[in-house]
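Response to reviewer comment R2.3. The reviewers asked that we include at least one raw input/output pair. We reproduce the pair for rRNA methyltransferase 2, mitochondrial here without editing.
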Amino acid sequence: MRQTLPFWSWAAKRSRDAFRKQSKIDNYRSRAAYKLLELNQKHRFLKNGFRVIDLGFAPGSWSQVASRAVGSEGLVVAVDIQNVAPPQGVLPVYGDMLEPQTRAKIQDAFHQHRQQSKADDLTVDTVLSDMLHSTTGIRIRDHAVSMDLCNSAFQLAKTFLRPGGFFVCKYYMGSEEQEFQKSLMKIFKRVHVEKPKASIKESREAYFVCLGRK
Ligand SMILES: C[S@@+](CC[C@H](N)C(=O)[O-])C[C@H]1O[C@@H](n2cnc3c(N)ncnc32)[C@H](O)[C@@H]1O
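Raw output as returned:
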């Protein structure tokens, strides 16, 4: 019975180590995979054939999860400031999401893919952002940097998402999150705040899961 349920629902001790151990067994690059698996199990924003942008992909476990979910008919474009090799089948773009030229690079990646696959439009179904700067421990500062990253991901989502599309965005809790949530609610039909089990309790990270781009 236990085997048929996902790991996070039966693991007695859902510690950072337990998730890390499991990620080795399941061949994921990090325990972060289980955060995305849990969010997707609940909200179904990754489907066969979907086109996905994964922001802040390194080391790559979200891209692995996304790529397995969308299959060979889909596409995952993964962006990071670090020059890390992407998982197999994932198209990498390297750049700083706070710099405007990175958006142009993402657009180029889609143009190239469109020429190769003869896809007729450049919209995507889902934008994921797990971007986070190394935290300093100074809460106000960590929150402010996280909100900048959220805003850049949101701008990109508004440019690329098809109507009905999905946006998942990590943030570091703090005073501006409600204002940001209000902006999300103007663009998406439903906005959920989630704290998956693989995200350790002490951490101040959480996720906005936005469904149905208007
Ligand atoms: C928590 S890690 C992401 C883990 C990843 N989702 C996974 O499953 O392996 C956060 C990532 O965000 C990236 N990042 C932080 N700031 C960025 C920026 N301004 N532009 C692009 N990527 C950024 C970091 O380099 C880091 O790889």
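The chain has a mean pLDDT of 91. Residues 29-30, 32, 56-62, 79-82, 96-98, 130-133, 149 surround S-adenosylmethionine (CB under 6 Å). Further pairs are available on request from the corresponding author.
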